[in-house]
Structure formats: C-alpha cells, structure tokens
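Example record for the data management plan.
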Amino acid sequence: MKQLQQGKKKLQKGFTLIELMIVVAVIGVLAAIAIPQYQNYVKKAALGSALATATALKTNVEDTIAIKGTFPNNTLSFALGSLKLTPTASAADGSIIATVDEGPAQNSTLTLERDADGIWTCKVEGDSVNDEVTPSACEFSSGS
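Corresponding structural encoding:
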C-alpha cells in the first residue's frame, strides 16, 4: 500500500507541458499590450519634461522683454535635448523651441510661442508623437 502511495506522489510533481504553454501564452499577450503602452508613457514623460523646462524659461524671457524690450536669442540644452529662443519680426514676440534628441520621443519638438500681447501658445510636432502623448496644455500638429 505504501509503494502505491509513493508512486502516486511521484506522478504529481511539477507542471504539465500544456500548463507551461498556457502560462507562456498569457505572458506573451500581456507583453504585447504592455510594451506599446509603456512606450507611450515614456514619450509623454519626455514631452512633459520639455514642457516643464520651456515653461520655466518663460519667466526669464518675460524678464528680458521687460528690461531690454526684446525677445532673447539664445540656444541652451536640457536633459533630453536642446532649447532655442528665437525672436520674430516684432521685438516682444518669439518662440521657445524644445527639441527632444533622445528616447522614444526623439526628433519631436515642443514650441511655446509668445505673441506681441504676451499670450503664450504651445504646439507639439514630430513623427514619433501623437495626440495621445501630447501634454494637455499643448495642441498636436502632425507637421504636414
């Protein structure tokens, strides 16, 4: 009787091949959903960082306009890329262009434009971004 019980215990150790295949299939489906979603979160974070950096720079731009009367002309860098301050035809208006040079949002630009009345608008462009990852304070432009 003991031998029969011991033999039964040996047969019940481990998982069957079908159980392992089901687990691998479930993990594959979850990964297929999670990886693209993760890429969108990373793009959104990169654009959020660009927006935060450019928004912080607006204070300095407003200060320069108040003191010197002109929009500054400069190029700076931040963690994910570069910032370019570009004046336009009028002395008090221009744009801050944040270009993301790294990561999944690479080659995308976030532009803060200031008009002569001091109103700022935000626009995002790039092949690797879409309306879903654009910060809520900005509008998405397909670039074409």
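Summary line stored alongside the record: The CA atoms of residues 39 and 92 lie 38 Å apart.
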